[in-house]
Amino acid sequence: MRVAVVAMETSHHRDTEGRRHLDRLAGTLAEAGHEVSVFCSRWWGGSSSQFAPDDVTYRGVTVEPAETSFCTRLPALLAKHRPDVIVAYPTPSSVLRAANAGAKLARAPLVVEWFGDHERAVSDRAMGSADQFVTPSGLVQTRLWEAGADADLTTVIPESIDMKLVRAVDPAEAVDVVYAHPLDESANIESLFLGLAELRQKGWSATIIGDGPEREAYEREAADLRIDDRVTFVGTCNRERRLAIYKGAQVFVQTAWREHFATELLWALACGCIAVVEYQAESSAHELVEHRDRDFRVSTPQEIADAIVESAGLEHRTVDESLAEYDRATVVKRHETLYERLVDERGLF
Predict the structure, then answer these.
(1) C-alpha atoms less than 13 angstroms from C-alpha of 207 in its C-beta half-sphere
(2) 182: cis peptide before it, omega within 30°?
(3) N or C terminus: which one in the chain shows less Cβ crowding within 10 Å?
(4) Domain of residue 176, CATH code
(5) For the whole prediction, is pTM greater than 0.85?
């Protein structure tokens, strides 16, 4: 299948979760054997209008993210490319409308990847241009409905993980508790630290994965609570190192205020961690553990502390094969099935 991805600004222009998600989706589709082209503003050097650093081809619609010029050129370029399906980032609204114009010319369905973290509102007219919206979680789907999307035109397809990599990585040294999230204003490590402070008289160790503008503040907080001798901040870490830490850990604690999809929690669950998830109104993390019997949903630091203590008595695991339903090959098949249905509905096959 020929897939055109439309994003005036990719993660190379602006590093956001939703743009990284779209990058991953493009790469996964290409790995699955589809011909994937990203129509975007040029972010690579040189004078070439195309750039193919891997299986995905980037096609420069404009040199810079100039909205008017991008929208003027996009429909004709899509029509000439003749994709089977067009997958678009939801903003700016004008670009989404231009993608819709190109979809009509190419007689291709338009799928909008609505991750939920786009910076600008989407106009009603642009909302009406999509043949289908894809969200990563039920929480984001609900927000999308509230924004005016037709419930029949929305579907949830989660983020994916690489179970082959999970199985291959060796565990790191044992640790009782691990936490992973960018150390920004939404990290909310306070809840975890207050829970750990309740356990000062017990023996435990904790590893904090991530970096960001609030790291020094969290390091000070650990010191103020007199638990800094048992809390290790290890920085960002690559994927393999994260998996090794997760496989060595007993408990993964999820407390962040905002998660459109709790990707690190999913990786940790696949690595056998017991999850302790603090409910937050702007986080979808609880959706991953709702029907699991080894994990805990909590609301207070004291409940976090109690769950950590109870978890210590449970079996330590390094792989959870039940998470194979989130494996990359399985999840990409859900995207393929959606695209095939939309194409069939247009009568192209």
Answers:
(1) 23
(2) no
(3) C
(4) 3.40.50.2000
(5) yes
